[in-house]
Amino acid sequence: QVQLVESGGGLVQSGGSLRLSCAASGRTLSSYDMGWFRQAPGKEREFVAGMTARNGRTSYPDSVKGRFTISRDNAENTAYLQMNSLQLDDTGVYYCAAGRSFRLTVARTADEYSYWGQGTQVTVSS
Fold it and tell me: For residue 101, what pLDDT is reported?
């Protein structure tokens, strides 16, 4: 079992930056694929970043590519999502997720991840 706890959300003006953290306990995070998803009110959960455990490959949808960066610190057993140039459409609850696989490509759908955090709210204002 992996327990995940997100932090770092908050209110930020358009164009600003935030860094979200996802602290893991129960297992070593380095052996898990990591993903970040977000959900805005009335919308489905959306993939925003992922990283494989096996080869460190990353993937982002076009909506955040070049603005968001996923990373992990194995010594801290923590994953991060650096978000720059935030836009109003980035508002939502952000979730980190972990999955155990041996894949070489990033999992981009929610059902490919087994463990989820409780979410942290990100609100971008104009």
Answer: 82
